[in-house]
Structure formats: C-alpha cells, structure tokens
Amino acid sequence: MRTITSTEAKTRLNAILAEVEQTGISVTITNHGRPVAVLTPAQPRPRVFGHLRGLVVPESFDEPLPASELAAWGSPA
C-alpha cells in the first residue's frame, strides 16, 4: 500500500483515482504524518430489486427478450 500526503492527494486526485482503479492497490492519505484515510478500489455491487434484498437482478435484465419468448406472448394488438 502506497502512502501520500493530503496535499499530494488534493493536487493529483484524478491521477491517483485512475491508479487505484487500474492497479487495485489502496492508497493511504496522511495529514501531518498520520494516516487519516484509505482510498480503496470500489467493489461492484449486484443490482437488487426494490426492498427484496435476496433477489438479485442479473446484468442481462434490460436486454431485449429473444424472439422465441416474444412469440409466446403473442403479437401486439
């Protein structure tokens, strides 16, 4: 884990964010020599449906239905 000062973090925030995203390695930010924050890569969260915490919505949820599935519903009026 790399350590940087708060001044460096403020000056180079976009570059540091890109580095953390690309490498997956956390960065500790210090203020007057003491650690105050850790910048870590975000973990993707699965989509959930409303308040049903156990129901996970797949990434393919918004994709069009296949023709065979649409045919089962009949043609639109």
General description of the model:
This protein is of the alpha+beta class and 77 residues long. Helices cover 30% and strands 31% of the residues. It has helices spanning 6-11, 13-23, 67-72; strands at residues 2-5, 27-31, 34-39, 47-49, 52-57. A three-stranded mixed beta sheet has the order 1-2-3. A two-stranded antiparallel ribbon has the order 4-5. It is elongated, with a radius of gyration of 22 Å. The model has no long low-confidence stretch (mean pLDDT 88).
Care to give the gist of this entry?
With 77 residues, the protein is α+β, with helices and mostly antiparallel strands. The chain contains 3 helices and 5 strands; from the N terminus they run E-H-H-E-E-E-E-H. The radius of gyration is 22 Å and the shape is elongated.
| CA-based gyration radius | 22 Å
Q: Biggest sheet, strands in spatial order?
A: 1-2-3
Beta-strand residue percentage: 25-35%
User: Major beta sheet, specifics?
Assistant: 3 strands, mixed
The ordered string of helix (H) and strand (E) elements is EHHEEEEH
Percent helix among the residues? 25-40%
Q: Class by helix and strand content? A: alpha+beta
The rough form would be described as elongated
Poorly predicted runs are: none
Continuous helix count: 3
Overall pLDDT confidence: 88
Distance from N terminus to C terminus (CA atoms, Å) equals 61 Å
The total strand number stands at: 5
